């Protein structure tokens, strides 16, 4: 009986260790995914800011050209 009991204990310990490893992997995966999403949002914010700056520059260039030809006051 001790052999069976020892085998059951070893199997239970191995399963617990595997479950812990799986939980750790899932936790790390979720954390990496959240970090990637945050970086993507930051990149998107920078891209929006860049696009806004470019639009302002183009508006300024357009206004200068129109003023040069007397089409705008």
Which terms would index this structure?
73 residues; single chain; 1 helix; rod-shaped
Question: What does this protein look like?
Answer:
This protein is an all-alpha fold. 92% of the residues lie in helices and 0% in strands. The longest helix has 67 residues, at 2-68. The termini are far apart. The mean pLDDT is 94.
Topology at a glance:
Elements: H1 2-68
Strand pairing plus helix content: what structural class? mainly alpha
Fraction of residues in H or I helices = over 70%
Extract low-pLDDT stretches: none
Largest sheet: none
Task: Give the tally of β-strands.
Answer: 0
**Between the first and last Cα atoms, what is the distance in angstroms?**
100 Å
Our estimate of the beta-strand percent is under 5%
Count, helices = 1
Quaternary form: single chain
**pLDDT averaged over residues:** 94
Shape: rod-shaped
* Secondary-structure element string: H
From the alpha-carbon coordinates, what is the Rg to the nearest angstrom?
31 Å
What is shown here, in short?
The chain contains one helix and no strands. It is mainly alpha-helical and 73 residues long.
């Amino acid at each position: 009986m001790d052999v069976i009991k020892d085998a059951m204990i070893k199997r239970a310990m191995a399963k617990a260790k595997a479950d812990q490893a799986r939980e750790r992997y899932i936790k790390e995966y979720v954390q990496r995914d959240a970090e990637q999403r945050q970086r993507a949002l930051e990149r998107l914010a920078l891209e929006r800011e860049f696009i806004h700056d470019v639009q302002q520059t183009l508006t300024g260039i357009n206004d200068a050209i129109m003023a040069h030809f007397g089409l705008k006051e």
